[in-house]
Design goal:
Radius of gyration: 14 Å
Structural class: alpha/beta
Number of helices: 6
CATH class: Alpha Beta
Number of domains: 1
CATH topology: Mannitol-specific EII, Chain A
Order of helices and strands: HEHHEEEEHHH
Strand content: 15-25%
Shape: globular
CATH architecture: 3-Layer(aba) Sandwich
Distance between the termini: 16 Å
């Protein structure tokens, strides 16, 4: 079964002008957005922070992919993504993150989502376009396009 990124990314969960003092604050903002769209139980934020402290979710190209621990799947109400852009960047253990793609997944759907995101990040032009995007609709279109590549 293929997970459609466009099917799990609500345009309301794409935020282009976020600010965070550090990576913990950035993860809190990601959790806030996932909660706002009804994707996760409020306790999911602790699972996201626990995952981050266990192993950094920084994946390169200025992107981090915060998500919960496997044992937190029951806190996910529906598979969802949130894309938050931090134009001023956030220090992520010495790396600079400008985009967080938060993942909430009940099953193994996150593996497919990570694979699709990797296709964007491995293409320098597409990775730059994701980091530079200022329009939520453009981000949604870019991720939907990766479904078809």
């Amino acid at each position: 079964m293929t997970t459609n990124i466009g099917g799990v990314l609500d345009i309301r969960a794409v935020r282009m002008r976020e600010v965070a003092a550090d990576r913990a604050a950035a993860i809190h903002r990601c959790a806030d957005v996932l909660e706002e769209i009804g994707a996760v139980h409020p306790s999911y934020r602790e699972a996201m922070l626990d995952r981050e402290w266990a192993m950094s979710t920084y994946v390169g190209e200025g992107v981090a992919i915060p998500h919960g621990l496997d044992k937190s799947r029951d806190l996910v109400r529906r598979d969802s993504l949130a894309v938050l852009r931090f134009p001023d960047g956030v220090d992520w253990e010495g790396d600079r993150v400008t985009v967080c793609v938060a993942i909430a997944a009940r099953g193994d759907g996150h593996v497919e989502l990570l694979s699709q995101l990797a296709r964007i990040l491995l293409d320098p032009g597409r990775a730059e376009a994701l980091r530079a995007a200022t329009d939520p609709a453009a981000v949604l279109a870019m991720l939907e396009e990766s479904d078809n590549s």
